[in-house]
Amino acid sequence: MTAPAASNALTPxxxxxxxxxxxxxxxxxxxRERVLLAVSGGADSTALLLLAHAALGGRCHAATVDHxxxxxxxxxxxxxxxxxxxLGVAHATLAAPMxxxxxxTANLSARARALRYRLLEDHARTIGAHRIAxxxxxxxxxxxxxxxxxxxxxxxxxxxxxxxxxxxxxxxLGWRRAELATLVARAxxxxxxxxxxxxxxxxxxxxxxVLADAGWLDADQWRRSAAALGDAEAALEWATRDVAxxxxxxxxxxxxxxxxxxxxxxLRRLVLRCLVHVDPAADPRGSQVARLTAAIAAARENGxxxxxxxxxxxxxxxxxxxxxVTIAFAPAPPRRSG
Length: 338
Prior knowledge:
Blueprint: H1 14-25, E1 35-38, H2 43-56, E2 60-66, H3 73-87, E3 91-95, H4 108-127, E4 131-133, H5 138-150, H6 155-158, E5 164-165, E6 168-169, H7 177-186, H8 203-211, H9 219-247, E7 248-251, E8 254-259, H10 264-278, H11 286-302, E9 307-310, E10 313-321, E11 324-331
Parallel strand pairs: 1-2, 1-4, 2-3, 4-6
Antiparallel strand pairs: 5-6, 7-8, 8-11, 9-10, 10-11
Helix pairs in contact: 1-2, 2-7, 5-9, 10-11
C-alpha cells in the first residue's frame, strides 16, 4: 500500500463524506459514539477508513487482523498502520491462534471470520469503542444472496448481510465496489490486493468472476430485496416470540411445545427455540430442523407417535390437547459405549 505524505490529500469529496455520515447516522450516533474500523488495507476498507476519518475525526480507531495465514499479512498490517499514522488515526494490529473449529464446521473462512470478530470485539471493549464498522458493500450483498440462493437458504439466509448486528455496523452496504475503489485511487493510494479474492478454491472468488460479465444484474436492487427480506425476518422473529409465550413452556433444562395450526415456518422457529433452550450449544443443520419439524407436523395431523433425538436433545410426543399435540424436549440420555 502506498499513500501521499500529506493527510489533506486523503480527504474524500465533501459530498461523499456527507453521504457516508448520513449512512453512519442511520446505524449509530456519530456525534457521540466511538467507532472501531476493521481495515485490511484493501480498497473497500481503505475507503471506509478515509470516509470515517473525515466524518468522525478522533472518534474513530482502526484495527487490522493478522490471521497468520499468509506471510505477507504482517507487512500489509504495517502498511495500514503507516496510513493511519499519516491520518492521525489510532491503529492496532490484532493476532491470535486460529481456532481449530467453529461450531460444527472446520471451514477455514468460517474460522478466520470467527477469529476476526472475536479480536475486534475484544479490542473495541479495551479502547471503549461502541461500534465496529466493517466495509461490506452492495456487491458483497449481491454475492452473498446468490450464494445463499444456490444453497437453498430460507428467509433468514436470504436477508443477507444485515446493516447492524451486535456491536457491528456496515455503513457501506449502499455503496458499490467500483465507487469505493475510485475514491481510494483518487486519494493516490495503491490498495492491497488480497490473493484470496481471485483464488478459484473459494466459492466467492469464482462467483465474482462470473458476475463481472453479468452487467444486467443490479446490485442496488438486490440490496433492496435483501432489506425487504430482512424486514420479513424481523417480523417472523417478532411473531415467534409472541406465539412462544402461549405455546412454549421453558422450565430448567426442559421445554414443551403445544402444536396446533402454526404455519410451517413459525413451527420450525418454535422447534429451534425449544432445542436451543434444552441445549444452548446446539447448532443443528437447517435440514435436520426441517425434518424434525415435518415429523412434528405429521404427529399433529395423523396422530403418529414421535420419538427422536437431535444432537443432545430427546424429542417426544407426550399427550394430546384440544386442538393438537404436546411435544416434550429434554436432555437425551447418555449414549451407550461399545
